Predict the 3D structure of the following.
Amino acid sequence: MSDLRAAVAAGVLGAEDAYRSLLRATVEVARAIFRAQAASVFLLDEEADELVFEAVAGRGSESLVGQRFPASTGVAGWVLVTRQPLVVDDLARDARFSREAAESTGYVPRSLMAVPLLTEDEVLGVLEVLDRPADEPFTLADMDLLGLFGNQAAIALELLQRARRARAALDGEGELARFAARLDQAPEETRAAGLDLLRALERLIAP
Amino acid sequence: MGLPAHAHADEDLPAWSLAAAAGDAIRLPSSWPDRVTREWAWGGSTGKGVRVCVLDSGVELDHPLVGTVQRSVAVTKDADRTTIADDDSGDLCGHGTACAGIIRSLAPECELTSVRVLGAGYTGSAAVLLAGLEWAIEQGFDVINMSLSTTKKQYVDRLHELTDAAYFRRIVLVASAHNMPVESFPWRFAAVLSVGSHESPDPFAVYANPQPPVEFFARGLNVEIAWLGGTTITATGNSFATPHVTGLCALILGKHPELTPFQVKSVLHLTAANVGSGP
């Protein structure tokens, strides 16, 4: 195994965690800026036509990550198909929405802001912010801010997906990738000894 | 379908040049007053006789805020071709119903047609959108509402051709601007009328933007919209500003059916709340 490949493997494994953290940080900031009860990013699984909770801040938090629900209907479906941000108030008036929300997350929001996560060519998912303070009027400046957060979350989500694809490409070499990552993080002396051992191994198996 | 990119509304008109003596032959009447007011532009109009198309996610049938929908069609796509057929499955997500309700609230007697191009999966959605737009232009609607856009660059040229074709066929194409930092279309094109949101509660108030590509701002904040299941809800978005302008265009064309898209745009500009001494 070359140093280059080891470096790639270590980078891929590290990147996935780093981008997941970036995404989580983005939803946490979105929640804080809008002083909302919760914020989440959903990844679109196009094949299954489902949305997957990818990062959650506030109510529900980490227990929701990985949960899925249909992507074609409701507010998220609206935002996905139109690629337009949407803010809805008095959601409690929609009995069907309330029931579906209660069933999927156990939390029924009163208001919801949603923005599509777009790259140049595709829609990756949706960023949602639930229940900003009821006594603060919503403004169009808030809407623009939501769009900016959507852009940042889209970049984080795209990087995360790329890292996952790279990891899948390394699949089959999973053992090696894990070994490379460990070696990369080891103390300097251990790392140097490990690399010496690898070079010896390389000479041994070289044709 | 083979819609020419630049079709002429009347083939008898000189297309490329005008002889010295021919000016009289194409003299156009003008009854515009010295000052174009809201009253002159659409006072007394209900949008009657104006054919409006909602290119969207479908429209819920018999929603109380929408009323009669003259015709509903859906565009679908299989491996490599798109099909357009009558459809009575309504609206999956509610977006088209919301837009139709707003248009109806301004122009109660306009004729509404729904063309569903959104909602059935996401792959190939830009091709479906283009096929729907092409069909709507062939049908010769007076106004087409597009509270949607695409980011797919490979469709930009064709979309550009279609919006120009609509313009020269006297079809007013009203499109939502994106209030996000992304490149999307067709709202950026000069042949369409692009709309963003303002915060005033007046559904008839339009502001002309001195800094395009967004050309006009209309009501988009805290709008009471039609929601699925015959209900209503309060919502905010450029998607709702756009049908306000579509409704106004229907009112203007109901009263002045001879106007071209260029002239309709001029009327909207002259009656904008921030132009001259205002309405």
